[in-house]
Amino acid sequence: ASIIDGILLSGSPFLRYRHNDYDQLERLVQKNACQYETIIILTESIFSMDGDVADLNRLIAIKRQYPNILLYVDEAHAIGARGKTGLGIAEEQGCIQEIDLLVGTFGKALASMGAYLVCSRTIREYLVNTMRPLIFSTALPPFQIAWTSFIWERLPSLTKERENLLAYSRLLAEALTGKGGEISQSHIIPFIVGESEDCVRKAEELQRKGFYCLPVRPPTVPKGTSRIRFSLTANLTIKNIHQLIVETGHASSPTGARPVSTPPDRELDR
Ligand SMILES: *Cc1c(COP(=O)(O)O)cnc(C)c1O
């Protein structure tokens, strides 16, 4: 939603490619590359609804076939959580240098506010001078920036936390296999319940048992794939995960909730 709103605000024409369908993207690029001065390919790195991960090197390969393509990667869910020093999936996949516009937020793993863009000086100057939402909003308060710097400087040393997070995520995703969890390759793990009301009921039940989790329903996700979206943190214990697995395990069988293992194509036709 953030990416789409940004595109709409830019006023640029845009096309969507199906979720991680790089063959389709390649065809679209081929068809359109000569019609535009510049094309920007946009992607999240960790996808916020399924927790799956983009193949950035594949996107870079597509970009390199043409002289007028820039690659924009939104690392909102990956910054702090992935990569050797916490710089995200671009670091993990060894391609930071190749990303033209690398975006991240301080609002998730960094527990702060604000966001960043890593880009060329030219693009920076352009945005600082033309981007209305930036020009006409108040700067962040200094204490917020101090807090962000404090956390930012510590990111590289949080290796153990990142390892824990990944290990617990795998454990939960494996346990939820067949219930939607298997598509996740990250700490964002969907537990696909199916119908909207079942999903809300299940989330409330888990909350009563002490697991803070929220239901995600249409139109955020396709109909019939309402899900509880677990977002794990590094401070969980193995015991917490096992308890959660037991609690989610009760969901599908006795009550007859209908898990849908693979969500349909998520392309939003507008
Ligand atoms: C959360 C999120 C944002 C917005 O982050 P802020 O905390 O508002 O800075 C932007 N893009 C993606 C992909 C997100 O998941």
Description of the molecule:
This protein is α/β, with parallel strands linked by helices and 270 residues long. 39% of the residues lie in helices and 14% in strands. It has ten helices and seven strands. A four-stranded mixed beta sheet has the order 1-2-3-4, covered by helices on one side. Strand 1, helix 3 and strand 2 form a beta-alpha-beta unit. Helix 8 runs parallel beside helix 10. It is globular and about 55 Å long. The two termini are 13 Å apart. The structure holds pyridoxal-5'-phosphate. Pyridoxal-5'-phosphate binds next to loops.
Short key terms for the protein model shown above:
alpha/beta, binds pyridoxal-5'-phosphate, globular, three-stranded antiparallel beta sheet, 270 residues, four-stranded mixed beta sheet, single chain
Query: Unreliable segments (pLDDT under 50, ≥5 consecutive)?
Result: 250-270
Count of alpha/pi helices? 10
Characterize the largest beta sheet: strand count, sense, and whether it forms a barrel: 4 strands, mixed
Ligand species = pyridoxal-5'-phosphate
Q: Strand-residue fraction?
A: 5-15%
Q: What strand line-up does the widest sheet have?
A: 1-2-3-4
| Fraction of residues in helix | 25-40%
Report the principal-axis shape: globular
Rg, Å, rounded: 20 Å
Separation of termini?
A: 13 Å
Structural class category: alpha/beta
Give average pLDDT, whole number: 90
Order of helices and strands: HHEHEHEEHHHHEHEEH
Number of strands: 7
